[in-house]
Specification:
The protein has one domain: 3-Layer(aba) Sandwich (Glycerol-3-phosphate (1)-acyltransferase), CATH 3.40.1130. The chain is built from eight helices and nine strands. The protein has helices at about 1-30, 60-65, 70-75, 85-90, 115-130, 165-175, 185-190, 220-235, and strands at about 35, 50, 80, 135, 150-155, 160, 180-185, 205-210, 210-215. Strands 1, 2, 3, 4, 7, 8 and 9 form a seven-stranded mixed sheet that branches. The protein has a two-stranded antiparallel ribbon with strand order 5-6. Helix 6 (about 165-175) packs across helix 8. The longest helix has 28 residues, at about 1-30. The termini are far apart.
């Protein structure tokens, strides 16, 4: 039974990787998607944590594009996402995410319990310890969902970013992972709040930053978290 499930997962993964490659390559060639900093992405995508801003619900799919080769040729390295269970499982349009749902570790964002936190935390560490990869959005929700005054940081060019929760920094330090900061621009126009139909004709971009080795950096959890905020926000203005 386990072998059958593994075969199904790998078959789906192959199809997903190939489909993502074709879709986003086409968008790239049409000038609708611009990816910069490919050379900064580690050649060996192993024990990587992508840390990004979160302008829309489209990002888990879009960022999986960076791992198309892993989906097709090395499925165990295809990245896991930590989506909000409510947005990605309980909405009527949740079917949109089925292609990558096998790589979801759902988080109950509004359920604050030690047991829930530890379950997710142990699962994440298990993935990284096995050489797997993660995509994490430390803002804890979409940037536009902030309603509290002073909860946003602003870059010199006016880009907005919520203050990060320190979970990504804590996990990276514990697992001695490689953090790759990413800035996403324009995705809030691809899948605006309240919409379920991706507007893939809208222009957007993915900016990849310089990797940060959490295994060698001499920083506390809080200091690393502040560094990640600063680094991601700086990417916005590149």
């Amino acid at each position: 039974m386990l072998m059958v499930k593994k075969l199904i997962a790998e078959t789906v993964g192959y199809c997903v990787g190939l489909s993502l490659a074709i879709l986003f390559w086409t968008l790239d060639k049409l000038g609708l998607l611009k990816v910069t900093g490919w050379e900064r992405l580690p050649k060996e995508l192993k024990k990587i944590i992508i840390v990004s801003n979160h302008p829309s619900l489209w990002e888990p799919l879009a960022l999986s594009y960076l791992f198309c080769r892993q989906y097709v040729f090395d499925f165990k390295r295809a990245p896991y996402n930590l989506p909000d269970a409510n947005n990605y499982y309980r909405q009527w349009f949740s079917f949109l995410w089925w292609p990558i749902r096998t790589r979801f570790i759902p988080v109950e964002r509004n359920v604050y319990s030690v047991a829930n936190f530890m379950t997710v935390y142990r699962t994440i560490l298990k993935v990284l310890d096995a050489g797997g990869n993660l995509i994490i959005f430390p803002e804890g929700g979409r940037t536009s969902s902030v309603v509290i005054s002073g909860a946003l940081q602003t870059s010199s060019k006016g880009k907005k970013l919520r203050y990060f929760s320190d979970g990504a920094a804590a996990v990276a330090l514990s697992a001695k992972a490689i953090i790759v900061p990413v800035w996403l621009d324009g995705f809030e126009k691809v899948l605006p709040r309240g919409s379920w139909l991706p507007r893939i004709w809208r222009r957007c971009s993915i900016k990849i930053g310089e990797p940060i080795n959490a295994g060698t950096i001499q920083l506390s959890k809080n200091s690393l978290n502040r560094l990640l905020e600063k680094t991601v926000l700086a990417l916005a203005d590149e």
